[in-house]
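Researcher: Before we compare anything, I want clean individual predictions. No alignment, no superposition, just each chain on its own. First chain goes here; please echo the sequence and then give the C-alpha cells.
Model: Echoing the first chain and its structure:
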Amino acid sequence: MRRRDFIAVLGSAAAWPMAARAQQPALPVVASVFGASREAVCGPLESPCFLYSSTPQSVALRKGLSETGVVVGRNVTWEDHFLEFQYDRLPAVMADLVRRRVAMILVHDAPTAIAAKKATATIPIVFELGIDPVELGLVASHSRPGGNATGVHWFPQQLIGKRLELLHNLVPKAVRVAVLINPSNVIAAETQLRNVQEAAPSLGLQIQILNAATIGEIDAAFATIAREHLDALFVAGNGFFVSRTVQFVTLAARDRIPATYASREAVAAGGLMSYATDAAGGFRQVGVYTGQILKGAKPADLPVVQSSRFEFVINLGTARALGIDVRPQLVAIADEVIE
C-alpha cells in the first residue's frame, strides 16, 4: 500500500467514532417553568436547584421520574426557568421553548400554565396547580383531559377553609384576622380571596384583606396589623411570600401576631402553624407523569390527579412565646409538632 493511501485509510477510520457520535440524537429536553424566583423555589443562591436540591419536592420528583426509568443526564435533559415574578416575560419564554421544540413543559402556577397552553397545542404540558385546570381551560375534564395537558390539582378551597378553622381553634379569641394576598398573580389572588371570604363567616371571623407584592409592602402590612390591633394573620400561599419566610416570622414574633402559613418551611423557621398540601406527593406524581409521557403516553389519556392530602404543623415553642395554650386535641391531630 502506498503511503498516501495508508494515511487516507487511517483518516477515515479515525473519523468513524466522531461521525457516530455526531449522529447520536440529542436527549429530549424537559423545561420546568416557575413564575416565582429562584430563591423562592430553591433557597439561597448557593443551593442546588431545582431538580438537584434536597427539598422534599425535589426528592419526590426524582423518585417519580426514577419509577418510570427516567434519569436526568442519561435519557433526558432538564432545564429550570425562573420568571422572578415578571410575568410579562412569559410570551417570550414560551415562544423560545416552542421554537426549540422541547419535549415537555412543566408549569407550576396558573399564569405559566395558561401561557404554555396558548403557546402550543402539541408539546405535552404537565402542571401542578391550586386552581381548577378545567376552569382555566387547560383540560376538558379531570378524568379525560383531552389535548396536550395533564397533571396535579390541589384543593385550595378545602385548604383555605380548614386553615382558617385550625387558626380559630388554636387562637379562639382571635376574631379580626388580616389576610395577606399578593395581587401580582391575579388569578391566584382572586381565587384565594373568594375562598377566604366564603369560609370566614361560618367561623365568626371578620377578615381584613391586605395586599403585598414587595418587601416594603409586607412591612407596611404588619404596620397596619399593629395600628388596627388585628388579632391574627393569614398568609396566603404565594411563591414570593415563601421567599420572604424569615421576614414574616421575624415581624410576627416582634409584633406578637399569631400567624398561619401555607408551607411547613415557615413553621420550621419559627412560624406558629401551617396547613398545607402534601407537596411531596404531588411532585412525585408530576415525576411519574413526566416519565410516562417521555416514554410515549399521551397527556389526553392521563387523568388529572386531584390531591386532597394536607399536613397540619404546629410550632409549640412559638405558641409558648405568644402565650398560646395549645390544646391536647390539636396536638393529637397535628401531622408534625415542632418543639
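Researcher: Okay. Second chain, same rules.
Model: Second chain and its structure:
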Amino acid sequence: MTIAPVAPMPRVWAVMPSYDDIPERALVDVLLDHVDGLVIADDGSNPHVARELERIATQAAVELVRHHQRRGKGAALRTGIAAALRRTPAPEALVLIDADGQHPPAAIPAFVAASSSAELVIGDRFADLAAMPWQRRLANLVSRRVLELATGRSVRDTQSGMRLIRGRALDLPLWGDGYEAESGQLKAALVEGLDVAWVPIPAIYGNERSSFRPIRDSARVLAALIRPVERQAAPSLRAMPPLGSPVDSTVMPAAVRRVP
C-alpha cells in the first residue's frame, strides 16, 4: 500500500492589533502553541497598556511594533503584517486575531486546514448570532447581503476579524485605516476570484471595551463594500513600505525565548 506523503505545515505567524487592550497571558500561550511567532501592533495605546504590551513582548516569543498615535485597526494591521512578512524565513500564512479575547486561538488548526484549499479563511459566527450585540448582528447581516449583491458570490460572516491570509490574498491591498480595511479586502478577494472559506467560531462578547463605533464604523464598512475595487489604491501586503518614520512606528526587539 502506498501512503501519500503528508504535506508539511506552513510557516504561520499571527498578527494582533491592540488599542488599549492587554491580551491575557493564557490567550498568548495558546496562540503561540499554534503559530511560529506573533507580532503585536500597538495602535497608540495609553502608557499603562503600552508598558504591559512591552512586558508581554519580553516574556513571550513576540515582536512588538508601535504607532505613537492611534491610527485605526486597518493601519495597525498593515504595520503588524509588514513586520511579520519581513521575518526570515518569511511566513507562508498570517493569522489575524484580536487582543480582546473575542477570537479563540484554539481554532487556528481548523483555519490552517481550511487554507489548504482557500487563500482567505474567515471566522464564521453566524451559528452563534444570538450572542452578538444587536447592532453588530444587524450590521453583519446587512453587510453580508450588500457583499453578495456586489460580487454575485455567496458569503457568510463578513466582519469577523479572525482570519488567515496566504497566497494571492497577500497580494491584495488592505486599504483604509479602520474596520473597513478587512471588509474591503474580502470584497477584493471575491472580485479577484480567490477561494474564500469560513470556519465556525463562537461569538464571544463579554464586558470588554470595544473601539467599534456602530454608526460611524458600520457606514465606513458599507462604503467599502459598495466602492469599486481599485487594485492601485494601495500597495499589496507584500509590497508595503519598510517600518519606520513613514508609518510612525517603533519596533521593539523580539524576545529570544518564551518564559513558562
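Researcher: What stands out in the second chain?
Model: The two ends are 43 Å apart (CA to CA). Additionally, The helical segments are 25-34, 47-59, 73-85, 108-114, 134-151, 180-191, 214-226.
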